[in-house]
């Protein structure tokens, strides 16, 4: 182990990672990008000193952000991913045979290039002909489509830099309009442990648009606190009742039982979201 990397949640809470090797590093027009090989959890994408994904636990996050909405919608055909430049969410979405088009809107083309080279296990679906990569700001892109998507997945970085507006009320309003009348959106919504106030605000911003809004929880070891949230907004289907119970794709984390169980919230979170 030659280096240490410190991920700082605040001046009072930091996570120290041992690094075998820094494989790549660049300052892009949007953020500092690194690909590192951690002693624990292996190769990883790091943006602005925040761990985004590691090859050993990426499937916890990518399977749960993708399959929960895709197994709730009965026939997902057109899917939009905002962010997600590592390709992990697209890889999972494209496992669904019903899906005929995935638009992936990533602001930073350098993230895609670096992940294609150094994280091929995660970025392996960029050559799928159903995937259209659009290099653009998701906030601007989402203003155009009307009734176009069955599922919109917001796989953004944390609310800093170019991702701040991806957590705004106006953005969720535009997401709502981009969806068909039975559409579903899901967003990664941070740690309910360390960022409870933010998580609550986002939940209410999404529920201001969608008749059904539900948070679900996953443990992602490489994220600060491990405890991570997603928030789903739906125009019609209830992810706890309407999900398909016999998925026919290969998964390592997602199961139909876990799909349902992940919506069972600890009491303090139920209280927070009242
Ligand atoms: N799984 C990760 C997490 O929760 O830490 C997020 C994955 S990821 C690679 C997030 C991506 O969102 C980054 O590649 C970043 O460039 C992209 N992004 C940030 N702001 C964006 C915006 N306004 N429009 C489109 N993509 C954006």
Automatic annotation (TrEMBL):
Pfam families: Spermine_synt_N, Spermine_synth
Species name: Thermacetogenium phaeum (strain ATCC BAA-254 / DSM 26808 / PB)
Family matches, as HAMAP family: Spermidine_synth
Record gene name: speE2
Superkingdom classification of source: Bacteria
Keyword Transferase assigned: yes
Start and end residues of each PABS domain: 2-235
Top class in the EC scheme: transferase
Residues that hold S-methyl-5'-thioadenosine according to the record: 31, 106, 137-138, 162
Function: Catalyzes the irreversible transfer of a propylamine group from the amino donor S-adenosylmethioninamine (decarboxy-AdoMet) to putrescine (1,4-diaminobutane) to yield spermidine.
InterPro entries, per database record: PABS, PABS_CS, SAM-dependent_MTases_sf, Spermi_synthase, Spermidine_synt_N, Spermidine_synt_N_sf
Residues annotated as catalytic: 155 (proton acceptor)
Catalysed reactions listed for this entry: S-adenosyl 3-(methylsulfanyl)propylamine + putrescine = S-methyl-5'-thioadenosine + spermidine + H(+)
MF-aspect GO terms: spermidine synthase activity
Gene3D superfamilies, A to Z: Spermidine synthase, tetramerisation domain, Vaccinia Virus protein VP39
Protein name in UniProt: Polyamine aminopropyltransferase
């Amino acid at each position: 182990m030659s280096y240490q990397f410190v991920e700082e949640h605040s001046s009072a809470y930091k996570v120290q990672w041992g690094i075998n090797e820094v494989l790549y590093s660049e300052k892009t027009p949007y953020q500092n990008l690194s690909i590192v090989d951690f002693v624990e959890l292996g190769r990883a994408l790091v943006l602005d000193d925040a761990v985004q994904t590691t090859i050993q636990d990426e499937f916890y996050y990518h399977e749960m952000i993708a399959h929960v909405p895709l197994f709730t919608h009965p026939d997902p055909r057109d899917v939009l991913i905002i962010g997600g430049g590592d390709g992990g969410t697209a890889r999972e979405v494209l496992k669904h045979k019903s899906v005929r088009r995935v638009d992936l809107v990533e602001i930073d083309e350098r993230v895609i290039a670096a992940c294609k080279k150094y994280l091929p296990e995660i970025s392996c679906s960029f050559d799928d002909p159903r995937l259209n990569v659009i290099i653009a700001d998701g906030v601007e892109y989402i203003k155009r489509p009307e009734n176009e998507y069955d599922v919109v997945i917001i796989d953004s970085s944390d609310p800093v830099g170019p991702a701040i507006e991806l957590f705004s009320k106006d953005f969720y309003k535009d997401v709502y309009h981009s969806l068909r009348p039975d559409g579903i959106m899901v967003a990664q919504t941070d740690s309910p442990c360390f960022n409870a106030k933010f998580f609550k605000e986002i939940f209410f911003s999404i529920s201001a648009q969608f008749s059904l809004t539900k948070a679900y929880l996953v443990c992602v070891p490489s994220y600060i606190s491990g405890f991570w949230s997603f928030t789903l907004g739906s125009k019609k289907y209830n992810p706890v009742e309407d999900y398909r119970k016999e998925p026919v794709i290969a998964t390592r984390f997602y199961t139909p039982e876990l799909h349902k169980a992940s919506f069972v919230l600890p009491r303090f979170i139920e209280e927070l979201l009242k």
